[in-house]
Each structure stands twice: as C-alpha cells, then as structure tokens.
Write a structure and sequence with these properties.
Blueprint (H helix, E strand, L loop, with lengths): L2 H32 L12 H13 L8 H31 L12 H19 L1
C-alpha cells in the first residue's frame, strides 16, 4: 500500500468517524422527541374498544426500542469483525499460495485461481502417491 493510499484510507476513516459522531448527536435529539408519551381519554373509548386495546396489549410481545446510538455502535462492531475476518481469510490465501507452484509471470494469483490450482496440485500429488 502506497503512502498516498494510506493517507486516503486515513482520511476516509476520519470522515466516517466524524459522520458517526454527527449521527449520534442527532439521534439523541430524535430519541428525546420519540419518548414523549401521548395520552388518550378513557371516557372517549367504548367498553368494546377498550377491551380490544387491552387484549392487543396482552398478546403482543414488548418490542425493545434500540437507540440509534446503539445501532451505530453495533454496526461499527460488526464492520470491525468483518474486516478482521477478511484479513484472516486473505492471510490464509497468502499462506496457501506459498505452497503452490507459482505462475511464470510472478503475478499474484486471485483467490479463485489459488483454489483451482490447489485442487489440481493436491490431485496431482495424490496420483504420485498411487
């Protein structure tokens, strides 16, 4: 990775972090507004309507309200896990490439090519053992 690519990556990361902070601030304001409770007059409800409302509340499971801040934290954590997973997968492919015959033009094999050559190589080695 060149220094210019590294700088661009750092800038991108910084801008994403800045945007996340702004979203967190605006989500806190939205959360405050959404927690306001609305009341209805019980006298305006007939007995049958009241029973319907009461039964609906009993049957429904309580939904957990997840704040936007929590959602963002979860998303960032998931992104980090996925980044780590891909990094480990790429390391595994690099290790596999070390044990395979290298191509003549010294270019790095794609993941697909690596798997295809590994399969052919293992098959050839098995044939040698027979």
């Amino acid at each position: 990775m060149t220094s210019e690519e590294l700088k661009n990556l750092q800038k991108t990361h910084f801008l994403q972090h800045k945007q996340n902070k702004e979203v967190l601030k605006s989500s806190e304001n939205q959360q405050k507004e959404s927690t306001k409770v609305k009341f209805i007059s019980i006298s305006s409800l007939s007995a049958s309507n009241f029973n319907k409302i009461e039964n609906k509340n009993v049957k429904r499971k309580k939904l957990k309200i997840v704040s936007v801040q929590t959602k963002i934290k979860r998303r960032l954590a998931a992104n980090g896990r996925e980044r780590r997973r891909m990094k480990n997968l790429n390391k595994a492919f690099d290790n596999l490439r070390k044990y395979l015959p290298s191509p003549e033009n010294n270019r790095q094999l794609s993941k697909y090519e690596t798997l295809q050559i590994a399969q052919s190589y293992i098959t050839a080695l098995c044939e040698l053992l027979k």
